[in-house]
Design a protein that fits this description.
This protein has about 600 residues and is an all-alpha fold. The protein has a domain of about 400 residues: Up-down Bundle (Growth Hormone, Chain: A). About 65% of the residues lie in helices and about 0% in strands. It is globular. Pfam families: MFS_1.
Length: about 600
């Protein structure tokens, strides 16, 4: 993979400019351009291409801080339009999570029609969650390459198609197939949350409020299923539990198609460059230069990006595991409702749906409680913009006070259900657990959106993978665990795990700076931001697996576009600035084997 020449400003397939940008750091050193040009010609000659026949001229690449295109980006949209987009993204996220839980209300009817046990029927819920975990990871990087809008449209459409298969399934095998592929086709919060990073600059006070809003959709969509599903289960055939998901999904997809435009900066820049070339300007978008052929190795690299983040970025790993185990505990806890309340207090179908109301109340309380916490963080950043603690770890501050609610809630639930006291006690415990669930998800997502900016989809994909995979794997074993261990012992087991998770919250908060230092890509993005006074970093050119990072800086179809072998050269000298150092770090971090560009 070619590297960026720090003195010329020329990037292999990502960013080069002969016109000064508003950022003074991006003005090219013309002497260095002339000094290094023979080396480029030698490289072309060594590959059988004469520099005289196909001279390589630096092409102007549009950047998001260029004054002539900045007003086209989603950052510059009116506030009313941004929040209009967010309302529809809210509905998209609700529909995705609605699909995970409404299925449970069809289990009884499904087991009767297909003559299977209810425990077997629950594997349809588990299959969706496990596949959903991988869907979050697989869709996320494509939204960074081709745009949020097309990815969400494809995802919603395919989910609806497989939802129809489940609705009219002739047997349980068809249900499992439809649920598995439906989960795999679900893009999830990794893409919807990344839209926030497209719409708001990370220093914009509304950035965190928008995050709070979409997080509410994610957790709220999960409890909408049981609330809606109870009357459907009582009055209608089980297939309506599946059909309602499809109807809701189609309505949301149409709203998104009609009202939401593309927000991803690089995609907007590519389109703007095409329009400018039609008017005679020789400019290119960040993803336009180079060969356009299908490169399956590049596809594999793009798909692997979220998994690499999860495995090699300590921030992503720590926060994702914290959020994932928390969500898995709560899913197991919720699954116990169908075992505890009917046997302990004789709850019927409608009364069972009411057991989820305390979770909703907990989410509302958590939402309101985060408003002053966000204002506090905004004030700290304004007072000292260079304070790294305020930029990152302080986003976890309110979690320090809400995290203990998870073990405390489970402890109260264990005693109130095990000692046969009034059911209201268990409802109070459920409310506490709801507050903590919301707080953990909000705090971890807020941190990762700030740390990974334009690549937030890949970063938050790890969070989604951990939450959905662990919940999917553990959901089917919840009721057998409660049946075998008993209500008190099973809940106390969850309590012990919750205590360990709570310790993890404090560990992450106090050792956050160390985790960030070891997170190579997050540090590279932070270095990149320093070179953009306006704070807009829409891509890192040398990121392996990105289209910008794999394009040559010559137009498609030219002989000079043939990818040369990398020529040996001296190590970077002291003249290389921090931007070049950051980009080299990114290249080392996500390097693919030689021959990737063939």
């Amino acid at each position: 993979m070619l590297q960026k020449n720090a003195t010329t400003g020329q990037v292999a397939g990502g960013e080069s400019s002969t016109t000064p940008s508003p950022d003074s750091n991006s003005v090219p050193n013309l002497e260095a351009v002339e000094e290094n040009r023979p080396k480029e010609e030698d490289m072309n000659t060594s590959n059988g291409t004469s520099s005289q026949q196909s001279p390589q001229q630096p092409k102007r690449i549009l950047k998001s801080n260029d004054t002539d295109v900045r007003q086209l980006l989603a950052f510059s949209l009116p506030s009313r339009t941004k929040w209009g987009y967010l309302v529809i993204i809210f509905l998209v996220q609700v529909s995705m999570n609605f699909n995970t839980t409404l299925y449970s209300n069809g289990i009884s009817g499904m087991s009767q029609e297909f003559r299977i046990s209810e425990d077997t029927a629950r594997w349809g819920a588990a299959a969706f969650l496990i596949a959903y975990a991988f869907g979050c990871e697989l869709w996320a990087p494509w939204s960074e390459e081709y745009g949020r809008r097309i990815v969400l449209q494809l995802s919603l459409g395919l989910v609806n198609v497989f939802g129809i298969l489940v609705t009219f399934a002739p047997n349980f095998q068809s249900v499992l197939i439809g649920r598995t592929f439906g989960g795999l086709m679900t893009a999830g919060g990794s893409v919807t949350l990344a839209v926030i990073a497209d719409l708001f600059h990370h220093n914009d006070p509304w950035f965190q409020y928008a995050t709070l809003f979409i997080v509410a959709a994610s957790v709220g969509g999960s409890i909408l299923g049981p609330l809606v599903g109870a009357p459907v289960e009582m009055k209608l055939n089980w297939r309506w539990c599946m059909g309602i998901q499809v109807i809701f999904g189609v309505v949301v997809q149409l709203l998104h198609l009609i009202f939401v435009k593309e927000t991803r900066a690089t995609v907007i820049l590519n389109r703007a460059a095409k329009r400018m070339r039609s008017r005679g300007k020789d400019v290119y978008g960040p993803g336009e230069l180079g060969h356009k052929r299908v490169d399956w190795r590049e596809f594999a690299t793009i798909w692997m990006r979220p998994f690499r983040f999860f495995l090699t970025e300590p921030i992503v790993l720590a926060l994702s595991l914290l959020s994932g185990f928390s969500d898995a505990l709560i899913f197991m806890f919720i699954q116990s409702f169908t075992f505890i309340y009917p046997t302990q207090w004789g709850f019927g179908t409608l009364a069972m749906s009411a057991t989820f109301v305390p979770l909703f109340v907990g989410y509302v309380i958590a939402y309101i409680s985060f408003l002053p916490a966000i204002r506090r963080n905004i004030h700290m950043r304004k007072r000292d913009p260079s304070n790294q603690h305020a930029l990152y770890e302080d986003r976890l501050w309110w979690l320090l006070y809400t995290a203990p609610g998870l073990p405390i809630g489970l402890l109260i639930f264990a005693f109130t259900t095990g000692l046969h006291v009034h059911w209201i006690g268990s409802m109070v415990a459920t409310c506490l657990i709801g507050i903590t669930n919301f707080a953990i998800y909000m705090a971890t997502i807020d941190y990762m959106l700030r740390a990974y900016g334009p690549y937030a989809a890949s970063a938050t994909g790890g969070n989604g993978w951990a939450r959905d995979f662990l919940a999917g794997v553990l959901t089917p074993v919840a009721i057998p665990m409660y049946r075998n261990l008993g209500i008190f012992n099973a809940t106390m087991t969850l309590f012990g795990i919750a205590c360990a998770l709570t310790v993890g919250v404090y560990f992450t908060y106090y050792y956050g700076p160390t985790l960030r230092e070891k997170s190579k890509f997050a540090q590279s993005l932070a270095e990149e931001e320093k070179n953009f006074p306006q704070g807009v970093v829409d891509y890192v050119p040398d990121l392996s697996g990105s289209r910008a990072g794999s394009r040559r800086v010559t137009p498609a179809g030219s002989r000079a576009n043939s990818p040369p072998r990398r020529a040996p050269g001296p190590a970077p000298d002291a003249r290389r600035n921090s931007m070049a150092t950051a980009r080299h770090a990114v290249s080392d971090f996500l390097t693919v084997p030689l021959g990737h560009h063939r």
